[in-house]
Amino acid sequence: MTDHPWIYLSPTECHGSHDGGWKQSLEPATDLPATSLVMDNLPAKVFETHRVGILLMDDLLHPLRLKLDQPAKPAELKPFLSWKLKRYLSYPIDKAEIRFMPLEEEHNYVTFSLPRPWVDGLFQALKTKGVHCGYIGGLFSTLLEKTRLCWNSFSIAFFDQIYLFAEVAPNGKLLQFRTRRLPFGHDGSLDVATLAHSDLEAFLRADKTGKKVQVLNFSPDLQPHLAALQRELNQFRKDVVVPQLAGPALDRFITLMGTQ
């Protein structure tokens, strides 16, 4: 997972870890940036390494919690989840690339989806430049799936407009997962009190297992609010961990990967 460079894509920017890092602004999109736009903005050094992994803001993978009405054999899981998922996607389900993770509650799963034409188009465009793309995933979901960073914890991952919340058992099993929009005040600043007490307190107070609480901030704009958030959370949890992260989202991801 770490023996190749990374490219991180958001609707407005792309970042890369090649040769000390680079950043390029994109024309703002409402969803995934077009493949042609991405390729036109990649620097030449991207094509010199021949391998790359693609990371996305997790919200672009449309994370959803789905419950199946009946048990499903492993071979039937993806078709059953696709049938449930089709009402929530803006593109046809037969054109969806789906990844899923089981939850502790029986027949419950978290799904992550991308339009297959976009995935195939990006793979092929990179391939024509001699670059093999071996992975596409979200920043937070990659840490959940590929590392032990979130084991035995409540992990809260912040992006510019949303946060993702995951409870993970000591053995790595995903117990809870949800996505919420961040609350902002009239002045545009993060409403820390609402976030801590209306959104998170009930979940964290109910825990009797001693799991740590960790705040993973991928948004530089939210950095000034972290101290206040930790103070609010410390009113009912004394085990809140806020890793020291700096730079853009990709740099923060790489730092967290390096702790593993």
Structure summary:
With 260 residues, this protein is α/β, with parallel strands linked by helices. 28% of the residues lie in helices and 28% in strands. The chain is built from 7 helices and 13 strands.
Tell me what the structure shows.
With 260 residues, the chain is an alpha/beta fold. The protein contains 7 helices and 13 strands. It has helices at residues 35-40, 74-85, 116-128, 139-146, 192-206, 226-233, 249-258, and strands at residues 6-9, 13-16, 22-25, 51-56, 64-67, 96-102, 108-115, 132-138, 153-158, 162-168, 174-181, 212-217, 240-241. The strands form 3 sheets. It has a 5-stranded mixed beta sheet. It has a 5-stranded mixed beta sheet with strand order 11-10-9-12-13, covered by helices on one side. Strands 5-7-6 form a 3-stranded antiparallel beta sheet. The longest helix is centred in the last third of the chain and has 15 residues, at 192-206. It starts with 5 loop residues before the first strand and ends with a helix. 29% of the residues are buried. The model has no long low-confidence stretch (mean pLDDT 94).
**Strand order of the main beta sheet, please?**
3-2-1-4-8
- Total strands: the figure is 13
Q: Tell me the helix content.
A: 25-40%
Mean pLDDT: 94
* Biggest beta sheet attributes: 5 strands, mixed
Q: Work out the radius of gyration.
A: 19 Å
Strand portion, in percent?
25-35%
- Helical stretch tally: 7
Low-confidence stretches: none
Shape descriptor = globular
Instruction: State the order of secondary-structure elements, H for helix, E for strand.
Output: EEEHEEHEEHEHEEEHEHEH
Tell me the structural class: alpha/beta
- State the separation between the terminal residues, measured CA to CA: 11 Å
